[in-house]
Design a protein that fits this description.
The chain has 450 residues and is mostly helical. It contains 23 helices and five strands. A hairpin with a 3-residue loop joins strand 4 and strand 5.
Length: 450
């Protein structure tokens, strides 16, 4: 046995309000979004789709006594914060909306989802290339870190200097160093002599870049202020208590990533999951958190789902365990795979638990066929990676009351690993008569017989 030194639970910075107060502030930021979400969820028929249809916009503005612009902004926030779920042309209340008045954690997660989507809440200035906007969005975490570490107002020139440095680093990493003083483009052999206008344009590049950075910084600060993360003063910006707390949480996640106990941060999703296969649930979740903190949510979820689509059933189950650690941000992607037969049972269980069902009761959301498919898939994972005794005990988890009934439904479910699972089960089971029946079922599936 080895002892593991655990990292003490971090404490928020001094002066951070209690979670109940932070949740109160988050509720205030999203008050209009909550009202619009309740209205949309209670509106029968189509008309609450994204973007909000014109006639629905007018009805909402009248019913809620808000301007159309306020309704449109609140609707966007409700969607981004997970307060509503869109099903075709119909809006349904999201889990967070149902828990809004009683669950401070749900409120804070909803606000953090909005905070993460600040660049969607506040549209970028027109006429700017998408690449420049993306660079600014990627550089904003460093701006937020400076604001958080300063614990007070920071002047706009200081923030602009940091943004410019970070954008330059990103361009250098991509080998996109812009031309400037001391740098010249290779001359064409037959190029005409430069005119005075050409020389003026060549030297104007850095000035335009500074102006562009200033425009993008103003946009970013306004977007962050729009979601309640900071306040803007005359020539300076200050994080709100909510913004300060959110940035601290994200910095802590980076620290956790840097202290990954099993060293899986740099691994691919498949290798990371295999590395966690022998861990108990608590340490495994610590590894998942560390691996996730070192990546953007979108790329991490996409990589985990790609692994889940593979042939290894063990990795499929572990991928959805890691997605449970992701939580709400993974919901749209998990819901999108419901149409994939190999992932549907896992996605249904994930969504049931995410919506607040007890894990012991979550199995009730599966049809009998889906439960049987999941039984075969889990048996395949045990056969590939587990012990023979565990495969025998896995029989007890089947929804069917008898082995003959299980074999009948397993044959019908069409899982690609059915034959291998039945052969492994027959080889492992100590009862000769039962093992014979299982081998016969495997032979029938293999030959296509009844």
């Amino acid at each position: 046995m080895t002892t593991r030194r655990t990292r003490p639970a971090p404490r928020p910075p001094e002066g951070t309000p209690p979670r109940a107060e932070l949740a109160r502030q988050a509720r205030a930021v999203l008050a209009d979004a909550v009202r619009i979400a309740h209205w949309a969820a209670g509106t029968p028929g189509p008309g609450a789709a994204a973007p909000l249809a014109a006639h629905a916009l007018e009805r909402a503005a009248t019913a809620l006594e808000l301007s159309p612009a306020q309704v449109r902004a609140g609707w966007d926030r409700a969607r981004l914060a997970g307060l509503v779920e869109l099903h075709g042309d119909t809006a349904r209340p999201g889990w967070r909306l149902r828990a809004w008045d009683r669950d401070d954690s749900a409120v804070l997660r909803g606000w953090v989802a909005l905070f993460d989507a600040w660049s969607l809440v506040h549209a970028a200035p027109e006429g700017i290339e998408a690449g420049a906007v993306a660079e600014a969005v990627e550089a904003v975490p460093q701006v937020l870190s400076l604001l958080q570490l300063s614990a007070g107002p920071v002047t706009v020139p200081a923030l602009l200097d940091l943004l410019g440095q970070r954008v330059a680093e990103l361009q250098e990493e991509r080998c996109e160093v812009p031309l400037g003083p001391g740098r010249t483009a290779p001359a064409a052999s037959a190029a005409p002599a430069e005119t005075a206008a050409d020389q003026t344009a060549a030297t104007a590049g850095p000035a335009r870049s500074a102006d562009l950075n200033a425009l993008l910084l103003d946009w970013a600060l306004e977007g962050l202020a729009a979601v309640g993360a900071l306040t803007l003063g005359q020539g300076h910006a200050t994080l709100t208590p909510l913004g300060n707390w959110a940035v601290w949480v994200k910095l802590e996640q980076i620290c956790v990533a840097a202290q990954s106990p099993a060293g899986n941060i740099e691994q691919s999703a498949a290798d990371m999951l295999l590395g966690c296969a022998r861990l108990t649930p608590g340490p495994a979740r610590d590894e998942y958190r560390a691996w996730l903190a070192a990546r953007t949510v979108g790329s991490a979820v996409a990589e985990l789902l790609a692994v889940a689509r593979g042939e290894d059933a063990l990795l499929r189950g572990l991928a959805f365990e890691a997605l449970r650690v992701v939580g709400g941000p993974a919901e749209p992607e998990v819901r999108a795979v419901l149409a994939e037969p190999s992932l549907r049972p896992y996605a249904l269980l994930w969504l049931a638990e995410y919506e607040g069902n007890d894990p012991d009761d979550a199995q009730d959301v599966l049809s009998r066929e889906e439960a049987t498919w999941l039984w075969v898939d889990t048996a395949a994972a045990v056969a590939d990676h587990g012990e023979t005794g565990l495969l025998v005990r896995h029989l007890d988890s089947a929804v069917q009351g008898t082995v003959p009934a299980l074999l009948d439904e397993v044959r019908a479910v069409g899982h690609p690993r059915t034959v291998q699972v039945l052969v492994a089960l027959a080889a492992a089971h100590p009862d000769p008569a039962l093992a014979k029946a299982v081998r016969r079922a495997a032979f029938q599936v293999h030959t296509g017989g009844a």
